Amino acid sequence: MKITLLSGGTGTPKLLQGLKKVVKEDNISVVVNTGEDTWVGDLYLSPDIDTVLYTLADMINEDTWYGVKGDTFITHETLKMYQCEGFSEFLRIGDRDRALKIHKTYFLRRGYPLSKVVDMERKLLNIKAKVFPMTDDKVETKILVEEEGEKILLKFHDFWIKRRGKAKVLDVFYENSQYAKGVEEALVSIEEAELVVIGPSNPITSIGPILSIRDIKRALKDKRVFVVSPIVGDRAVSGPAGVFMEAKGYPVNIYGIYKFYQDIVDTLIIDNRDNVEEKKRGIECKVVGADIILRNMEDKINLARRILEEYRKN
Ligand code: GDP
Predict the structure, then answer these.
(1) What is residue 36's predicted lDDT score, i.e. its pLDDT?
(2) Residue 9 Cβ contacting ligand 1 at under 6 Å
(3) Does 163 have pLDDT greater than 90?
(4) Quick check: CB of 46 below 6 Å from ligand 1?
(5) Cβ–ligand 1 contact at 237 (below 6 Å)
(6) Is 171 found in the same domain as 85?
(7) What mean pLDDT value characterizes the chain?
(8) Residue 304 lies in a domain
(9) Which pLDDT does position 26 carry in this prediction?
């Protein structure tokens, strides 16, 4: 059974760990957000892509969902000593993690499309699942904030890392997405999938950029799409999803998640403790309860199994 996931860099990778245990890995494809890609000094950073690669290669640092577990930071600390503006890194890049970023940068600078480089990397890391960036074009997620009465348009990292998410969010944009094309192999993986799963990811800054690409949205139109909620009750399980949903006019609850995905979702998977029977009212797709807080491998495998069980019911 072929499954394609749409992913950001924290929630869906957790589900991916479980799915990998219950589905043959060659049958899994992951289409990943690149709206947060950026340059740091001379390095190209594709944070969600790298997290998905490290997750599938069993190398991910699960404390941060960023970088390689057990990594060292000698280069980062040494660069700090040199105090060169051009090298100043607003986030800590580990040594082994840096090697993958250098690899990406090297080939991108020589004109390779990101999708080709990521495919090389997945093979180098012995990953059997397919991993595709959503696009080879530059689509950038921008956050409009208000600071001291002024409106400022920020890159995602300027908002989330440099300002630690502490600014009033007014809106979120996916710059350039109207001109961007979906990666061809990603589109084919969606067309060939028996099931598309939108894992528990931030709808606005992880999945929104992917859906903002017209041909990806179109490819999803007649597919069976399951969405796992990143919201339980009236809060995001982690991170700033709630703030972004509010800024875009969606209530921070299951109804907001449904509203965001209503064009494409067939089955919405919500937390068992989220009053499932009551929530079914007012939601026009199928609503299924499951344990969706993924603390350990057992939770992840159980959710993956639950998704497959639900798929086979129809
Ligand atoms: P990002 O790129 O780091 O923003 O990562 P994602 O968008 O993939 O994941 C972040 C979202 O995943 C947040 O909105 C969280 O609420 C959600 N999330 C994180 N862990 C879990 C979990 O264990 N269960 C569920 N249901 N959602 C989670």
Answers:
(1) 96
(2) yes
(3) no
(4) no
(5) yes
(6) no
(7) 95
(8) yes
(9) 97
User: Cα separation of 266 and 246, whole Å?
Assistant: 24
Q: Are residues 117 and 225 in the same domain?
A: no
**Ligand 1 neighbourhood includes 8 CB (under 6 angstroms):** yes
Residue 99 belongs to domain spanning: 35-133
Q: Is there a binding annotation on residue 92? A: yes
CATH number at residue 292: 3.40.50.10680
User: Is 50 within any annotated ligand binding site?
Assistant: yes
pLDDT, tens digit, 9 for 90 and up, residues 70-112? 999 999 999 888 877 666 677 889 999 999 999 999 999 999 9
Query: How many structural domains are present in the chain?
Result: 3
Res. 146: pLDDT tops 90: yes
Task: Give the Å distance between the CA of 86 and the centre of ligand 1.
Answer: 32
Cα end-to-end distance, the chain, whole Å: 14
| Residue 253 in tokens | 């609850």
Counting from 1 in the atom list of ligand 1, the atom nearest the Cα of 199 is: 8
Task: Look at residue 278 and tell me whether its pLDDT is greater than 90.
Answer: no
- What is the whole-number distance in angstroms between the Cα of residue 208 and the centre of ligand 1? 14
User: Half-sphere exposure of 269 toward its Cβ, with a 13 Å CA cutoff?
Assistant: 24
Give the whole-angstrom CA distance, residue 266 versus residue 151: 38
Residue 254, ligand 1, Cβ within 6 A = no
- pLDDT at position 43 is 93
- In whole angstroms, give the CA distance from residue 156 to residue 177: 15
d(CA 92, CA 66): 10
How many Å apart are CA 17 and CA 241, to the nearest integer? 22
Query: Atom 21 in ligand 1: which residue has the minimum CA distance?
Result: 11
CA of 81 to the centre of ligand 1 (A): 35
- Say whether pTM exceeds 0.70: yes
